Structure formats: structure tokens, C-alpha cells
Amino acid sequence: MTKVRNDLFDARLGLDRGRSKLCESTWYLMKCLLFLTPLPVPSAIKRWVLRWFGAQVGRGVVIKPRVNIHFPWKLSIGDHTWIGEEVSILNFEPVKIGAHCCISQRVFLCGGNHDYRVPDMRYRNRPITINDGVWIGAQAFVAADVTIGREAVIMVGSVVTRNQPIQMVCSGNPCVPLKPRWQELQDQDKQETATVQCEVKTGQGWGLLPHIPEQQVLEHMPL
Q1: How far apart are the C-alpha atoms of 59 and 77, rounded to whole Å?
Q2: Of 70, 80, 100, 114, which residue is the catalytic one?
Q3: Quick check: 193 and 181 in contact, CB under 8 A?
Q4: Closest Cα to residue 82, out of 105, 59, 110, 63?
Q5: For 165-184, what is the mean pLDDT?
Q6: Is 211 a catalytic residue?
């Protein structure tokens, strides 16, 4: 017999839908007609519709076909950001995407969650923040309560469950930072590594103990 009681789940707990049922139903209809369709509806029309439903959408935002947005009134997208085909944005809590970002095909931004620690599996939703200049590779998963730092790169298929630092290439399950994004930062990192290695070899590194003759060590050892 399981402790889990899905029959006790209450969708009203832990979720503020933010709009009336009529508004949400109207949005669902518009989403099916203009956003989930495979037809290439112009991004200008999609931007206008999203703003009409309360989203904050910047200039030059490109939205490809089959994009699934749950609550536009809880969505913010900065200038000149690209949203690729079949991206899913489950924004039960606010999702903020910065300017000049690239959200590639089939990325899942999942702001929804359940509390597995209680039998009724109540909601435990959290926001997602993607800062300016971020590229999230195809089919990556970004969990609730995650912030991705400015100009970071999340590689294909990664599972992002924790915050990621700025200007780093990050990958894996779980996703971790691997190396700097920009070449000048990589060169700087190599320069610093080479300097440290040189100091260690010459005995000039901080924290290195001076050479003590073996006889002095033996004289001061407790019997």
C-alpha cells in the first residue's frame, strides 16, 4: 500500500493562476491557433498577442512554430531573443528570459514542481531566471528555482537543476560549468594556471613551507 495520495491533490494550493478562467481559456485558444501550429506565423503577430495577454516582450524577439507557453502574463522576454521550435515554458511562477538569448529547439523550462515529501503531492513551483546573452542548447531541461548567469552556454541535452555561473560553458546531468565561454577568458585562465605552476616549481608560491634541514627536524621532535 503506497503512502502517495494523488486523489488528495488540490490544484488550488500553491498555484496562483493569475487570470480568470475566461482569460485562460481565451489564451489557450489563441495558443493553439498561433503558437502550437506548425505554420510559420510571423513573430510580430506572436509578440503582439503575448503583450495583449500581459507578457513583457522586447523588440525583435523571434518565436518559432510549436512553442508552448502556459501563462503569458508570467513571462518576460528581452530584446532580440530567439525562441526555437517546440520550446516548452511551464511558467506556473514567473519565467524571465533576458535580452539576446537563444533558447534552442525542444528546451523545457519547467517552473512547475510537486512536493514529493507529502502524500498529496502538492505544488512546489518556483521561478526561473535566464540572464542576458545565454544560449541554451537543444533538448536541455531547466528546473524550477534556477538562475543561469549572464552569457552562459548550456550544452545540448543538459539537465540544469542548480544555478550556473556567468560566461561559462556548462554541460551534463547534473549540469556543471566546464570552461569559460569567451576565448580571452580561456587565455587568461591558462595564463594564471601557468603562473601558479611556475611559482610552485620555483618555490615562490604562497603557502609553501621553507626548506628545513633534517637534523633540525629531528632535534625538535618530541620523544
Answers
A1: 9
A2: 114
A3: no
A4: 63
A5: 96
A6: no
Q: Record the cell numbers describing residue 117, joined without a space.
A: 515529501
Question: Which of the residue ranges 4-13, 27-36, 90-99, 206-215 would you say has the lowest mean pLDDT?
Answer: 206-215
**At 180, which amino acid appears?**
P
Return the number of other C-beta atoms located less than 10 Å from residue 195's C-beta. Answer: 11
Distance CA 101, CA 84 (A): 11
Taking all residues of the chain, what is their mean pLDDT, rounded to a whole number?
Answer: 90
Distance CA 30, CA 42 (A): 14
Distance of CA 145 to the CA centre of its chain: 9
DSSP the chain: --S--GGG--TTTT----S-HHHHHHHHHHIIIIISSSS---HHHHHHHHHHTT-EE-TT-EE-TT-EES-GGGEEE-TT-EE-TT-EEE-SS-EEE-TT-EE-TT-EEE---B-TTSTT--B----EEE-TT-EE-TT-EE-TTEEE-TT-EE-TT-EE-S-B-TTEEEETTTTEEEEESSHHHHHHHHHHHHHHHHHHHHT-STTPPPP--HHHHHHHS--
For the stretch 87-104, what's the b/e string if a residue is b when 16 or more beta carbons lie within 10 angstroms of its beta carbon?
A: bbbbbbbbbbbbbbbbbb
The CB density around residue 129, as the number of other CB atoms within 10 Å, is 18
List the domains of the chain with CATH numbers: 6-182 (2.160.10.10)
Cβ count within 10 A of residue 181: 19
pTM (2 d.p.): 0.82
Sequence length of the chain is 223
